[in-house]
Input
Amino acid sequence: MKIKSAEIIISAVKKEQYPSIEVPEVAFAGRSNVGKSSLINLLLNRKKLARTSSSPGKTQTINFYGINEEFRFVDLPGYGYAKVSKAHKEQWGKMMETYLNHRENLLEVFQLVDIRHTPTIQDKQMYEWIKSVGFNGIVIATKLDKIKRGQRQKHIQMIKKELNMTSDDILIPVSAASREGKEEIWKIITEIFEVNGFQFEQKQSL
Ligand code: GTP
Ligand code: MG
Output
């Protein structure tokens, strides 16, 4: 995918702030610190478009990024970090439910998990939620560079098992550091838009 333009449209907390539904979107969900914002930067070849941080809880709003003026990526607020009040958790839940359950132009939600760790209860709940809303729930296992090559399959199988994934379900390992997995994710994103009847401008002009 050639990235001609990529920009933040809005950091939204309520529905009224969402951009129009005329442009298709895919979203990225996952535990705080799993690497959602880093993945968006990797896919868009931008170092600092989506703000990243080594301390969890950086993205607390729903951040909409416009790409090539054709489609959008949506960086969802992370869950599962310590020191969060009950009120904050409720606010997160309402915000996610408003977006995920009622967004007509949302074509897919990618679930990110850290390839090193056993998925948490919240990861499992999030994945089930994504599927229950009707999305495929494609899993992206981040921080691939943090494990040894020989350990990869073991970790991938563990995650698939813990999330009750079937042989039809897709898991893609990726590293924002080594950039491995990037093309595979783009291939899937492109397919998702195409399956939904969306034609990329670049393709049409070929
Ligand atoms: P929240 O905004 O808090 O929900 O977190 P996030 O999921 O957006 O995570 P973010 O992209 O900010 O990354 C968290 C930390 O993990 C940062 O220090 C990143 O540099 C690091 N990180 C993300 N992806 C990778 C990766 O593939 N490999 C390595 N080694 N570090 C990564
Ligand atoms: Mg973030």
